[in-house]
TrEMBL record:
RagB/SusD domain sequence ranges: 357-636
Family note: Belongs to the SusD family.
Domain SusD-like N-terminal: 102-226
Organism: Mucilaginibacter angelicae
Signal peptide: 1-21
The protein's name: RagB/SusD family nutrient uptake outer membrane protein
Pfam assignment, any one: SusD_RagB
Top-rank taxon, per record: Bacteria
Keyword field: Cell outer membrane, Membrane, Signal
Gene3D superfamilies xref list: 1.25.40.390
Taxonomic lineage from the root: Bacteria, Pseudomonadati, Bacteroidota, Sphingobacteriia, Sphingobacteriales
Compartment(s): Cell outer membrane
Length: 636
């Protein structure tokens, strides 16, 4: 069986690389191999998992531009070792081009996967699903639904990157003429509508949740499909796709417009309805916002640390016991070592165990609210002008900042999500094998002589901030690195709540339901509701009472709540806000300085390069030569 299976994959690869058909759905001509692949249930199930195979590659954050281009994390480009594919991180340095595009999900190059090949596999599965004689009707219906979901998701992913893409509803026969193979782009609305159509067909035959968790976690459920449908419709309704004037002139060679010329507000209504349906289904099946429950190994916890662990573990908790998790992939998050600073003398000796090179810029830490639940620049009680002044931590700060340690004012008086998401010089790092809160480790990052400070060009953090949220508090970095693995969420309930609030605000403006779903997330974070926080503490108390003001708040809230989860980069694009975010230099601290007064001086570590053309990916130049019916993305 293995030899036949290898032959099947080889045929698929050969077909995918042939002339202009390399990214299209083309039926393999080895019918004997296909007959073997679908001769019985077991063989067909193997092929089902090949349809899932590309999806599982989405676990790698370095190939997810929602992660690498969000400005949340900077990865240095001057290392002497290169353990990661740096193509995605380098995109904000202006490296994108049409001769060899970075993170190319069209052809499967430079960190991307060949999604058209994946769609072809899905079509092969759907075309041959009737062949296994021992496949029960119920299982057959479920498999068809799973493959339709995958086919929809692959098309959606391509659309987010490239805008209008060819719709490959069925495989093109191997005997097709050259002209039949030369497909053209489909309008973005056609792509979104086709994805939703596939999901609507799939949802009734998917299980609501996975009951056989030992064998089936990671497979698609109704809740997954309904939530992704909501996300797809919200993306379609967003300014990047909904009447975007910047792409109004983009047309196929036959004159067919590829973007709608005017915005359709009804798209927000469709998205809001889909969000509410997904939320109702999730809650009916027992999903709820995560709350940390201390295991027996954990001692007494302050309210501060308990809130912090609630926020951190909403992402890093085991997926079979996390009531907030809607969807994650089977492979575990592979980069904890890049998010963890050195905390112990042994870890400073074993510096190659953890690179610690995921660096958070100052602008990302400043996203997080004050303890009053409003932005730093809006809090009337916050001394923003003196935020870089020095202060020594006292007893009241000891669960966030090491008592007696000197750091900057900006690190005090912040919301709990700030301390759960970001580690900084002097910050408490609860866990790492120590579960007595009064003996917790803290980060020492000033100068080469400090534990977490720069030691060489391969194990340094160039800003002095780490994405703490991406490290499980149970993982231990001491004499080597023993990680407790987790699955990075693709969708969790808090994100769905905020998506519903966003779509509902676009439909009706501020309403009680909009506030309610924002406040569910804020309450879990230990904050007061939007109206109370702004009316009490903000310099602009009426901001949440207008549609535009509340839109800004919701966008800000999503960037905080979903920080480091490979979401913000996508959100900023669909909102058409990423160009503004990447128009300012990204800064960090003077990491080689040991004295606080010298260390805490902002300096630029990266000046991003992002223009209007970078909202969508170029098609590779060679593909345009091979297929004369394709048009290049506007501005490329």
């Amino acid at each position: 069986m293995k030899q036949y299976y290898k032959l099947l994959l080889l045929v698929g690869l050969l077909v995918s690389g042939a002339s202009c058909k390399k990214y299209l759905d083309v039926t393999p001509d080895n019918t004997g191999t296909l007959e073997y692949a679908f001769r019985n249930r077991n063989e067909a199930e193997n092929y089902l998992f090949t349809c899932y195979a590309t999806l599982q590659q989405f676990y790698d954050p370095t190939s997810n531009i929602g992660f690498t281009t969000s400005s949340e994390i900077i990865y240095p480009n001057n290392l002497t070792n290169h353990p990661l594919n740096e193509s995605g991180f380098n995109l904000i340095r202006g490296t994108q081009n049409s001769s060899s595009p970075g993170v190319n999900w069209w052809d499967g190059e430079n960190g991307g996967q060949a999604l058209f090949r994946s769609i072809r596999r899905c079509n092969i599965m759907l075309e041959n699903i009737d062949k296994p004689v021992d496949l029960s009707p119920a299982e057959k219906a479920r498999w068809i639904a799973e493959v339709k979901f995958l086919k929809a998701y692959y098309h959606y992913y391509l659309c987010r990157l490239y805008g209008p893409v060819p719709l490959v509803k069925t495989n093109i026969d191997i005997t097709a003429s050259t002209e039949e193979v030369r497909v053209k782009r489909s309008p973005v609305d056609s792509v979104f509508n086709y994805c939703v159509q596939l999901l609507d067909q799939a949802i009734p035959d998917l299980p609501p949740v996975i009951t056989n968790q030992a064998k089936e976690l990671g497979r698609i459920t109704q809740l997954t499909a309904m939530s992704i449908k909501a996300e797809i419709l919200a993306t379609q309704a967003s300014p990047l796709f909904n009447g975007n004037p910047d792409y109004a002139s983009m047309k196929n060679k036959d004159g067919e417009p590829l973007f709608s010329s005017t915005a359709d507000p009804q798209k927000w209504k469709r998205a809001a309805d889909a969000c509410k349906a997904a939320i109702d289904a999730c809650e009916a099946n027992g999903l709820k916002l995560y709350t940390f429950v201390a295991p027996p190994t954990v001692g007494a916890l302050s309210d501060q640390l308990r809130n912090e662990l609630t926020i951190q573990n909403a992402v890093t908790e085991k997926w079979d016991v996390n009531p907030e998790l809607i969807w994650a992939l089977n492979p575990t998050f592979p980069c904890q070592g890049y998010a963890t600073p050195r905390l112990t003398p042994k870890s400073a000796v074993n510096i190659f165990s953890n690179p610690s090179t995921f660096a958070v810029p100052i602008s990302t830490q400043e996203l997080f609210y004050t303890a009053n639940g409003v932005p730093l620049t809006e809090d009337k009680d916050y001394d923003y002008a003196n935020r870089f002044g020095l202060k020594t931590a006292g007893d009241a700060d000891k669960y966030y900042i090491a008592q007696g340690y000197t750091t900057i004012n900006e690190h005090y008086g912040r919301e709990s999500r700030f301390y759960a998401n970001i580690a900084f010089d002097g910050s408490i790092w609860y866990g790492n094998g120590i579960y007595n809160q009064d003996q917790a480790y803290h980060v020492e990052a000033r100068g080469s002589g400090s534990l977490a400070g720069p030691k060489d060009l391969n194990t340094l953090n160039i800003t002095g901030y780490w994405p703490k949220k991406l490290a499980n508090y149970l993982s231990v970095y001491d004499d080597g690195f023993q990680s407790i693995e987790y699955h990075l969420p693709l969708m969790r309930l808090a994100g769905l709540y905020l998506l519903y609030a966003e779509t509902l605000n676009e439909v009706n403006g501020p309403t009680g339901d909009v506030y309610n779903y924002i406040d569910k997330v804020r309450t879990r974070a230990g904050l007061k509701g939007v109206l109370e926080s702004w009316s009490t503490y903000s310099k602009n108390p009426g901001k949440p009472t207008t549609k535009e003001g509340l839109r800004d708040i919701i966008h800000h809230e999503r960037r905080i709540e979903l920080c480091f989860e490979a979401q913000s980069g996508w959100d900023l694009r669909r909102w058409k806000e990423i160009q503004g975010v990447l128009s300012v230099p990204l800064q960090g601290w003077n990491i080689y300085e040991s004295e606080a007064g010298n260390y805490y001086r902002p300096h630029t570590v990266l000046t991003p390069v992002f223009g209007l053309k970078n909202y969508f990916w170029p098609i590779k130049d060679n593909d345009l030569i091979v297929n004369s019916n394709l048009v290049q993305t506007t501005y490329w």
